[in-house]
């Protein structure tokens, strides 16, 4: 865990892009990103299942199995641990760590804070090598009320860092950073929110891209198909060649 934890205390914040399959993860790593996260929305959408409904445990483990031995540090978005039983969440953490993951993201979904804290404590005991990023949805699903008390409970349970998606007001971010007294704060990047340099100045230590890349990729694919059907030139960025895609697979084979 040390190398991954160290990235949260470097000179610049950890910008964590979130991949959804082998090719997206290896392509991002090839651009120099030392750590890659997964995105639960993409895992669920690819399987035709709802996100945040504890329906994708097996799909998440399959993706971790695919990526765990790749040449980057892997952090897995595990929703709320795919269950309410701390022992079951602990078993998931053990499996992820055995597959090569170095981090796990656990969200509270605004459920009872003590239950989420129990999951965190169980994960710490079962997989001490995993960096536990404890997410609260007070801003994502609510108005921000209760953020501090929830994060305090999660930190007492052993979380290494905290994640507050939906928090994008600079003054509120700065105040939360001050209150955390050195604990790494993770926020979700928003195209309409503060820039990465601004977030760095505010003291944010980890910036996740969440499902943004997946949604952009899906949007670009649909837009290209519609343009082709209409006889228009395909807009957007350069598409990787067939040979470049094959190279990603060869890298996984160690060639």
UniProtKB/TrEMBL annotation:
Single GO MF annotation: lyase activity
One Pfam family in the UniProt entry: PEP_mutase
Domain of life, per lineage: Bacteria
TM annotation in the entry: none
Keywords, sorted A to Z: Lyase
UniProt cross-references to PANTHER family, sorted A to Z: CARBOXYPHOSPHONOENOLPYRUVATE PHOSPHONOMUTASE-LIKE PROTEIN (AFU_ORTHOLOGUE AFUA_5G07230), PHOSPHOENOLPYRUVATE CARBOXYLASE
Protein name (database record): 2-methylisocitrate lyase-like PEP mutase family enzyme
Species name: Streptomyces griseoloalbus
Lineage: Bacteria, Bacillati, Actinomycetota, Actinomycetes, Kitasatosporales
């Amino acid at each position: 865990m040390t190398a991954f934890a160290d990235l949260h205390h470097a000179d610049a914040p950890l910008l964590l892009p979130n991949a959804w399959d082998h090719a997206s993860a290896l392509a991002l790593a090839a651009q120099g990103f030392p750590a890659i996260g997964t995105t639960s929305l993409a895992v669920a959408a690819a399987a035709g299942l709802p996100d945040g409904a504890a329906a994708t445990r097996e799909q998440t483990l399959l993706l971790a199995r695919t990526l765990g031995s790749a040449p980057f540090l892997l952090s897995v978005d595990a929703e709320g641990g795919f269950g309410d039983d701390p022992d079951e969440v602990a078993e998931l953490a053990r499996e992820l760590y055995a597959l090569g993951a170095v981090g796990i993201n656990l969200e509270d979904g605004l459920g009872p804070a003590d239950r989420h804290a129990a999951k965190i404590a169980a994960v710490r005991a079962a997989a001490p090598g995993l960096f536990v990023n404890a997410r609260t949805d007070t801003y994502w699903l609510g108005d921000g009320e209760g953020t501090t008390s929830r994060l305090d409970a999660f930190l007492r349970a052993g979380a290494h860092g905290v994640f507050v998606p939906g928090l994008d007001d600079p003054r509120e971010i700065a105040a939360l950073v001050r209150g955390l007294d050195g604990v790494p704060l993770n926020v979700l990047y928003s195209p309409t929110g503060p820039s990465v340099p601004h977030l760095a100045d505010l003291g944010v230590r980890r910036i996740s891209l969440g499902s943004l890349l997946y949604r952009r990729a899906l949007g670009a694919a649909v837009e290209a198909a519609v343009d082709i059907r209409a006889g228009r030139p395909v807009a957007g960025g350069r598409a990787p060649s067939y040979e470049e895609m094959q190279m990603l697979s060869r890298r996984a084979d160690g060639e």
